[in-house]
Amino acid sequence: MSKILFVMTGADHWTLADGTKHPTGFWAEEAVAPYQAFKAAGHEVVVATPGGVVPTVDAGSLTPEANGGQEGADKIASALASIDEIRKPVKLEDVHLAGYDAVFYPGGHGPMEDLAVDATSGKLLTDALRSGKPLGVVCHGPAALLAATDADGSNAFAGRKVAAFTNAEETQAGLADRAKWLLETRLVEAGVDVQVAEPWAPHVVVDGNLVTGQNPASSAPLAAELLKKLA
């Protein structure tokens, strides 16, 4: 059995360009699908957030529209309610990478607010990347990579192939023209090699121990790739 660290956003909003606080948090499917896959394989999951706050689910991720109908919405809500670890997070500041076999970052717009500028998370990501341990990051989770900077100011993920929520998807979701910045653009500016696929289709990129996914639909296939690395 392996011990997998889920690093989740502690933010319940995303500040837009005009100062409006857009309600958000983590995206349900991106936590539930990997959690279920890891637990089914017999692994332990520990959730960590900045300050140890209980993470907020993005209400939009629980709607019938986001889950293929009411049945899917009911299923994801029930699954989420059964995850005790989410209600009892540890403080990210107290986490020691040595105690874990893999690290996973779900998305939602929350990471754009807090993890994108969280130095503790950035150091954890840098250490995880260089440790060779499986590191999975999905959708808006790669916003956290922006805080992974080396002493010279360069990004620790520069040159690495990564999938992340794209500008096209943000535009289709209706928030691109209201955002302070766009994830794909900012990652490219940091030197990350963003691999863009069709909007909303599952897309997973594996670059060494780093496994990334473009959108919510990529979370289950990403989890399957991480499990291969833990086998």
UniProtKB/TrEMBL annotation:
- Entry-linked InterPro entries: Class_I_gatase-like (IPR029062), DJ-1/PfpI (IPR002818), Prot/Nucl_acid_deglycase (IPR050325)
Tell me where on the tree of life, at the top rank, the source sits: Bacteria
Q: Which Pfam families match?
A: DJ-1_PfpI
Q: Which residues form the DJ-1/PfpI domain?
A: 28-228
- Which Gene Ontology BP annotations are present? methylglyoxal catabolic process to D-lactate via S-lactoyl-glutathione
Gene3D superfamilies the UniProt entry points to:
3.40.50.880
Q: Name one GO cellular component term.
A: cytoplasm
Query: SUPFAM superfamilies this protein is in?
Result: Class I glutamine amidotransferase-like (SSF52317)
User: What keywords tag this UniProt record?
Assistant: Glutamine amidotransferase, Lyase, Stress response
Signal peptide (residue range):
none
Q: Name one GO molecular function term.
A: glyoxalase III activity
> Which family would the database say this protein is a member of?
Belongs to the peptidase C56 family. HSP31-like subfamily.
Q: What is this protein called?
A: Type 1 glutamine amidotransferase domain-containing protein
* Native organism: Streptomyces sp. R44
High-level lineage = Bacteria, Bacillati, Actinomycetota, Actinomycetes, Kitasatosporales
